């Protein structure tokens, strides 16, 4: 049996140790990254096997170990490629073209250094444009050794 409450108590103790500089934040980040990798590997297998096990119960919803388990469709996907519907192909082509135009416009706006006068070629209107506001968050990136 997996003890969830023990994990919660462990997490609060780990936070306390971090806040009181009893352990290295870098060591904790590396350990967390290693756990994320391990959890993703286990999750891929456990998700499929748990769904199979739940299906054997014969009910769409049931209680197990204090938790409600429900069989459900998660993340339905559609492939429109074989539909042969010309309007959709034209719309998707336009979306791609407009997406590329938006990226080009964004690249130009990132390149300007300050207020710039711009004449809209479609309307002839002159306007003032400004570079975008750039924000960022500083953190660390961890790459685990193989």
Strand order of the largest sheet: 1-2
The structure class reads mainly alpha
Q: Report helical residue fraction.
A: 40-55%
Number-wise, the strands total 4
Question: Main β-sheet: number of strands, strand sense, barrel status?
Answer: 2 strands, antiparallel
- Cα(first) to Cα(last) distance is 31 Å
Order of helices and strands: HHEEHEE
Q: Mind telling me the C-alpha Rg?
A: 26 Å
Strand content range:
5-15%
> Low-confidence segments, ≥5 residues, pLDDT <50?
none
| Helix segment tally | 3
Average predicted local confidence, pLDDT: 89
Task: Specify the overall morphology.
Answer: flat
What attributes does this structure have?
4 strands; mainly alpha
What would you note in describing this structure?
The model has no long low-confidence stretch (mean pLDDT 89). Strand 1 and strand 2 form a beta hairpin. The strands form two sheets. This protein has a two-stranded antiparallel ribbon. A two-stranded antiparallel ribbon has the order 3-4. It has 146 residues and is mainly α. It has helices spanning 4-19, 25-55, 86-111; strands spanning 61-64, 67-70, 116-119, 126-129.
